[in-house]
Amino acid sequence: MFYRPADGHGLPHNPFNAIVTPRPIGWISTRGADGSENLAPYSFFNAVAYVPPQVMFASTSAKEDRGDTKDSVANIRETGVFCVNVVEYAMRDAMNQTSGPWPKDTDEFALAGIGRVACETIACSRVADAPASLECRVTQIVRLEGASNFAVFGEVVGVHMRDDCIRDGEFDVLAFNPLTRMGYRDYAVIRETFGLKRPGE
């Protein structure tokens, strides 16, 4: 099968998200200039550079109470900071609860019963029990083609790792089983890893 996205795919559901999988989930916590807090998952998320460490996530829709975007990007425009929290399998239901199109004054930490603690280097909360959290300062917000599509890039200025996830000096994903996003309404969990040496190693 071949299709041009501009012409449509002819299938019951868009296959694009199912093709680009699995995708890590960035559980983005932000604080607005008014002190309100937001927590929302984004599956267009990844690390993009080592030195300095940098990450990105993309927001692809808008809410009526936020103009051309959603709460996360709106808050980041105001404050210039955000925190990426890693989602473990055990937190799947709480993460899903925070994905709703809630009004901007909704505190998703409270809504989903998620513990929070203050970040160390930025004025923002993070998920207290997350396996890892990355405190970030925005480097740029890029408007992408299409309505309400924005890519947010940030430099990681603080890293939290849960102590039980560090084994033999390494951050061990099998200690918490990362949740990943597939297509449609599907998710996957990482329960097995294997290693490969690069040529010449």
Automatic annotation (TrEMBL):
InterPro entries, per the entry? Flavin_Rdtase-like_dom, Split_barrel_FMN-bd
A Gene Ontology molecular-function term? FMN binding
Ranges for domain Flavin reductase like come to 18-173
User: What is the designated name of this protein?
Assistant: Flavin reductase (DIM6/NTAB) family NADH-FMN oxidoreductase RutF
State the organism of origin.
Roseicyclus mahoneyensis
